[in-house]
Amino acid sequence: MTFPEIFRATRSDFKPLKLVLSFFTVQLLSLAIYSVFSQSPGFESGLFKTLFWLQIIVICGLGFQRLAESVSKERLEKTWDFQRLTPLTSFEITFGKFIGAPLYALFLGACFLPMLIFLWMGVPELRSSALTHYELAIALILFLYALSLLISSYTETNSRGAGIIGLFFIAAFSSSTSFLSKLPDETFYYGISLPTIHFHTIATVLFGFWAFFGAQWRIGKDLMESRKIWRLPSFLLFLIVYILGFGASNFYISSHVTSTALGAVALFSWIAAFANDERIDHWKIWLQHRKGIEKWNYTPMWIQSVTILLIFAVLACILIPEYRERPAAIIFALFILRDMLFLQWCRFTRSIRPSVLAVIYITLGYGIPIAFLAAAGLKDFFFVVTPGTEAKLSDLPLHIFPVILQIAGLIWLNKVWLDRGLRPAAPSQ
């Protein structure tokens, strides 16, 4: 494997004079801050926190900005398509950008280490809290670096979201440290007692891996690499297993945690649907030009995710006692399927912004009928236009019939437009 992106970043940023000046500038800044704090007794803790946050802000601010532009900037400058002419794989490009883009930011952060290590060695009280802070910081940096690269890989124009991601990191890190400090030392996960800090650190890193592989998949799509059908379903299965662990013990799974998992799968189904604008051209390739396993690999993203959601909803209604009496999970999944079919129809109509159009009409499709029914005092008929959480098992046919009817109508509508799009063009006279 070769990673030319790392060598390119090294040649660009690691010039000797630039490195020397950067190192001594950070040392002078550290000494200046030290001189300010040293005037008060017991200053070591405050000094350590100040230098730690400066280090994190430097790593985040510059690193996120570089990663957020790593792919989108090349697209803007019309140089991204040249990647197809190279023998590099999507993993080599993704890993190269993940390491190479923030390399100088990581160097600047490392320049703070001499003073931080000096304080850590000299003040024993700082050692345990410092290690905890760095454990969380490294995990969140890896996750948000991967998330920034994922956003850049899906952005067609130059990304300006690095600052937002940086602010999100600061908020996430500060809130997570205060939140985790209030939690007990042990977390029960699938009935097993685990150290809270280590558990959440490992979970954050795992989500970072998924974000990294999501960026690799999107870059591989530009390189015309073979798609793999297992990627999105496997992430959704990982998400389900991860969330259910917080409410599972002794072969019992909480219905509240199951509802959270259902909502998370639905959310990521929408994200996958909006991130992959699969219009009639994609369906032509899928239905007419792919055979065997390649046909499976080209299955539209929303079909993959909604299939997982429907299977999960059915299993929840079979295995979770609370859902057996109130099968709201199946009704919820069917409404998501209905909305996805409407989104696909908007794309088949070749609208300029089909996703925006779909969101507007889906929102109105929920809001306006509910408003009219509420004004007419017909709240018992909300189940016609929205998932009914209070539906009993005996009411399931009545609650499912309206959404099934809507799904059937949208399937027919999609088929009409799909047949029209797949029809060969008439020969010119």
Radius of gyration: 26 Å
The sequence of SSEs as H and E is HHHHHHHHHEEHHEEHHHHHHHH
End-to-end distance, in Å? 54 Å
Largest sheet: 2 strands, antiparallel
Number of strands: 4
Coarse structural class: mainly alpha
Q: Reading side by side through the largest sheet, how are the strands ordered?
A: 1-2
Mean pLDDT: 83
Low-confidence stretches: none
Helix content: over 70%
Q: How would you sum up the global shape?
A: globular
Strand content: under 5%
Number of helices: 19
Explain the overall architecture.
The strands form two sheets. The protein has a two-stranded antiparallel sheet with strand order 1-2. The model has no long low-confidence stretch (mean pLDDT 83). The protein has 19 helices and four strands. It has helices at residues 4-13, 16-37, 44-68, 72-76, 90-100, 103-110, 113-122, 126-154, 162-182, 196-222, 231-244, 255-275, 280-288, 293-297, 301-319, 321-325, 328-348, 354-375, 396-422; strands at 186-189, 192-195, 248-249, 252-253. Strand 1 and strand 2 form a beta hairpin. The chain has 429 residues and is an all-alpha fold. It has a domain at 1-180.
Layout of strands and helices, then pairs:
Blueprint: H1 4-13, H2 16-37, H3 44-68, H4 72-76, H5 90-100, H6 103-110, H7 113-122, H8 126-154, H9 162-182, E1 186-189, E2 192-195, H10 196-222, H11 231-244, E3 248-249, E4 252-253, H12 255-275, H13 280-288, H14 293-297, H15 301-319, H16 321-325, H17 328-348, H18 354-375, H19 396-422
Antiparallel strand pairs: 1-2, 3-4
